[in-house]
TrEMBL record:
This is Type II secretion system F family protein. It comes from Microvirga terricola. Residues 183-311 form the Type II secretion system protein GspF domain. It comes from the Bacteria. The chain crosses the membrane at residues 12-35, 110-136, 142-164, 294-316. The keyword Membrane applies. It is found in: Cell membrane. Pfam families: T2SSF. InterPro entries: T2SS_GspF_dom (IPR018076).
């Protein structure tokens, strides 16, 4: 009777595992069809922003009174908080630079970040007070409850910078992976006789399927090259927004080519090779780090299953004796 019960349980586990495997396979295969493609929306946003730059500059040159600005209007409640607390962030401040590196531009994101940085600790403290003192009724000393409340307030204070830094890291990873390919396309465009503005515009259109973030940055650089009085500033803005050494090296080459009239093709060829080598080196480092990282999952997940597969037939044979 026990053997039959063990056999039935084993069959049930096998059937359940097979069902889970089939469901997982179906989800993996069908998942790309449910993920929304943001490329079209982001490219449309870049195009719209470039058009706003063009309209603003034309209005300024024509002496119109009505000025058109790219800066998005912040929410009223955030604006009131920032004005009441007399908070401000200059164009050269670290906060503004950090938000630009994360892809947030204009006055709206700056005001929102400054307001949330002040409101989040208060909101988390109030939430923790309600949760600890009213909802849970924790049977702990008062200082322990106050420590929990302070920990929640600290989490609210450090959560916005951590979120922005996480956005910066993801954005830099996407740009770093696609940058060598973008340099190859830029080199081909320049050597075919295109100007730097046309080459950057062409690369931004082609590289969008690989990295939306890089396409956005190149599109903004193209707009700045067309309408900023100092072209060097446009290149420096690209390096500042990305914060990557590979981009800074290319920007230096572009600035030198603009200033001294040096050949741009050879410099781009060298920079493209160096960035490809850096990308390959990074991939090799990640591959070399895989065996130590896989040790714990193999011990925890694979070895028990392997022991079960090896020992279960022996246990069943022993139980039949």
């Amino acid at each position: 009777m026990d053997i039959a019960l063990v056999t039935a349980n084993a069959d049930m586990l096998i059937a359940l595992s097979a069902a889970i495997a089939v469901i997982a396979a179906v989800l993996v295969v069908s998942w790309p069809y449910f993920v929304r493609d943001h490329l079209t929306d982001r490219m449309a946003q870049v195009t719209s922003e470039s058009e706003r730059i063009r309209v603003r500059e034309r209005s300024r040159l024509n002496g119109k009174e009505r000025q058109i600005s790219l800066r998005s209007e912040p929410k009223r409640i955030y604006k009131l908080v920032v004005d009441h607390l007399s908070l401000s962030a200059t164009e050269d401040s670290e906060t503004v630079k950090m938000l630009r590196m994360a892809g947030y531009r204009g006055e709206g994101p700056i005001v929102t970040y400054l307001a949330v940085r002040q409101l989040a600790p208060v909101g988390m403290a109030i939430l923790m007070v309600l949760y600890v003192f009213i909802i849970l009724h924790l049977e702990y000393p008062l200082f322990v409850k106050l420590a929990i409340v302070m920990a929640g307030a600290g989490l609210g204070y450090y959560a916005p910078p951590l979120y922005v830094k996480n956005k910066i890291t993801k954005r830099q990873i996407s740009i770093r992976r696609s940058w060598p390919d973008a340099l190859d396309l830029l080199l081909i465009s320049v050597e075919s006789g295109m100007g730097i503005e046309g080459a950057l515009r062409k690369v931004s259109a082609e590289i969008g399927s690989q990295s939306v973030e890089l396409a956005e940055e190149l599109g903004l650089t193209t707009a700045e090259l067309s309408y900023l009085q100092d072209r060097r500033k446009a290149y420096e803005n690209l390096a500042e927004r990305t914060g990557l050494d590979g981009v800074k090296g290319v920007v230096t080459s572009l600035i030198q080519a603009e200033k001294y009239g040096t050949a741009l093709g050879q410099a781009l060829r060298v920079q493209a090779q160096e960035n490809r080598d850096m990308r390959m080196s990074e991939a090799e480092k990640k591959a070399a780090a895989l065996p130590p990282k896989l040790t714990v999952p193999m011990i925890v997940f694979f070895l028990p299953v392997l022991f079960a597969v090896i020992l279960t037939p022996a246990i069943i044979q022993i139980m039949k004796l």
